[in-house]
């Protein structure tokens, strides 16, 4: 699965390195899958705000 994902994202990860990290990725997938499978429609989206600062560190008008 991880090899296909890497290829789909255009990542050039050698097979031997993918074999090394696959057990860790599998464990992370298993640990987070249940949380990702639940209904998230009632959860508020996280909002982020990035102020545009001028060269003097002051907000732009």
Structure in words:
There is one protein chain. This protein has helices spanning 2-8, 15-37. With 61 residues, it is an all-alpha fold. The longest helix has 23 residues, at 15-37. It is flat and about 50 Å long. It starts with a helix and ends in a 24-residue tail after the last helix.
Which structural category fits the helices and strands? Answer: mainly alpha
Arithmetic mean of pLDDT: 83
- Please summarize the sheet with the most strands: none
Number of helices: 2
Q: Kindly state the number of beta strands.
A: 0
Q: Give the low-confidence spans.
A: none
Q: Please state roughly what percent of the residues sit in beta strands, choosing from under 5%, 5-15%, 15-25%, 25-35%, 35-45% or over 45%.
A: under 5%
Q: Report the end-to-end length measured between terminal Cα atoms.
A: 49 Å
Q: Mind telling me the C-alpha Rg? A: 20 Å
Shape: flat
Residues in helix, %: 40-55%
Order of helices and strands: HH
């Amino acid at each position: 699965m991880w090899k296909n994902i890497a290829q789909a994202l255009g990542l050039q990860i050698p097979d031997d390195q993918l074999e090394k990290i696959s057990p860790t990725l599998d464990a992370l997938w298993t640990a987070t899958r249940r949380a990702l499978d639940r209904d998230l429609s009632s959860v508020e989206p996280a909002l982020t705000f990035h102020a545009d600062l001028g060269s003097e560190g002051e907000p732009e008008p």
